[in-house]
Amino acid sequence: MFGEDQIAQQLSNARETVAQGPTLPGGQAEPIMTEAAEGRIKVTLGADGRFERIRMTLSALRDGPEALVEQLKLAVNDALDQRTAMSALAGPVPDQAAMNEQVARMQDASLQQFKDMDAAIGDLMARVHGGR
Fold first, then answer.
1. What is the pTM of this model?
2. What b/e sequence results for 30-39 when a residue is b if at least 16 CB atoms lie within 10 Å of its CB, and e otherwise?
3. Same domain, 50 and 76
4. Do residues 110 and 79 both lie within one domain?
5. How far is residue 55's CA from residue 62's CA, in Å, rounded to a whole number?
6. Which structural domain range is residue 42 located in?
7. pLDDT tens-digit readout, 69-97
8. How many CB atoms lie within 10 A of CB 54?
9. Residue 27 lies inside a defined structural domain of this protein
């Protein structure tokens, strides 16, 4: 019969494999603030990763619509790049196929153990009821 120690070892191995996996994206904890046009335009990306605020001086508006749009684009893209860098996965990514194989082996072993237990209980019940 498949022993508890073997199941515990397989579960431990699976947990270790999962623990080595990537962290979930979205590691941004604080708002990100970027600047463009020599500090005359400021863009804030909230901690939730969504656009939060734009602040600009009157002189930034006087540069004209094309220059304003270009500087806004630079500031927003910089904020998004910073968020991406904060959220990047660190370390190796586990082999999903290997994890799936390991879990399948555990499942098969568990199923066999339950079949063995069912057979043993059935045998015991037959002896108990046959002995009356």
1. 0.48
2. eebbbbbbee
3. yes
4. no
5. 14
6. 32-87
7. 999 999 999 998 988 887 766 667 677 77
8. 13
9. no
